[in-house]
């Protein structure tokens, strides 16, 4: 059994965003092995996500991205329990990561893909739940590509970011 130092706990906390006591317990359980501790925290995060699943997610933001040539765009609704969490840098980062995953998935990004418990979106959301201690979810997404050779996709996100519009000119 190895000795767990404050530096070890801080290092794991910086990697995962989990609480100090959770990190210390995971490191102790993993006998100081960072990879094993990280796995333990991820499993606990999934358990934590299941416990919070019944809570209403009526706050959140619309994530958005338009391609550099304005020929396609993405809108996605990412929800959480409180507007306080929706404004945090960690939640904003989660929204950016969700948009990036949708962009990477391309045509495979469907409602079924969003809901896949083993898919990348659900894994991102579970990690966010573990870190921010609130229920979260990705409710819906829209991917759109221009319909004509001269199409220009534009987006408008109404402050504070809860309503989004995407148009094809």
Short structural description:
This protein has 169 residues and is of the alpha+beta class.
How would you describe what is shown here?
With 169 residues, this protein is an alpha+beta fold. The chain has 2 domains: 6-52, Helicase, Ruva Protein, domain 3, CATH 1.10.8.10; 59-164, 2-Layer Sandwich (Tetrahydropterin Synthase, Chain A), CATH 3.30.479.20. The chain has 7 helices and 5 strands. The strands form 2 sheets. A 3-stranded antiparallel β-sheet has the order 1-2-3. The chain has a two-stranded antiparallel ribbon with strand order 4-5. α2 crosses α3. The longest helix has 19 residues, at 34-52.
Please report the first level of CATH classification, the CATH class of the largest domain.
Alpha Beta
Largest pleated sheet: 3 strands, antiparallel
Query: What class would the helix/strand composition place it in?
Result: alpha+beta
End-to-end separation: 64 Å
Second-tier CATH architecture of the largest domain: 2-Layer Sandwich
Task: Report helical residue fraction.
Answer: 40-55%
For this structure, the CATH topology of the largest domain is Tetrahydropterin Synthase, Chain A
Biggest sheet strand line-up: 1-2-3
Strand content: 15-25%
Query: What is the rounded Rg?
Result: 19 Å
Number of alpha- plus pi-helical segments:
7
Number of distinct beta strands: 5
> Going by CATH, what is the homologous superfamily of the largest domain?
Elongation factor Ts, dimerisation domain
Give the overall shape, derived from the CA principal axes: elongated
Give the averaged pLDDT, no decimals: 88
């Amino acid at each position: 059994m190895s000795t767990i130092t404050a530096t070890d706990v801080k290092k794991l906390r910086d990697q995962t965003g989990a609480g100090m006591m959770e990190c210390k317990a995971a490191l102790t359980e993993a006998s100081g092995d960072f990879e094993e501790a990280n796995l333990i925290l991820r499993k606990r995060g999934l358990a934590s996500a299941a416990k919070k699943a019944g809570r209403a997610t009526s706050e959140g933001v619309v994530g958005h991205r338009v391609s550099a040539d304005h020929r396609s765009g993405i809108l996605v609704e990412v929800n959480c329990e409180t507007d306080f969490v929706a404004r945090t840098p960690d939640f904003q980062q989660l929204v950016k990561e969700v948009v990036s995953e949708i962009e990477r998935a391309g045509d495979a990004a469907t409602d079924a893909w969003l809901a896949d418990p083993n898919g990348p979106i659900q894994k991102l959301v579970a990690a966010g739940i573990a870190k921010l201690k609130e229920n979260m979810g990705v409710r819906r997404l829209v991917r759109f590509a221009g319909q004509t050779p001269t199409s220009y996709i534009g987006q408008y996100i109404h402050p504070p970011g809860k309503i989004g519009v995407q148009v094809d000119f």
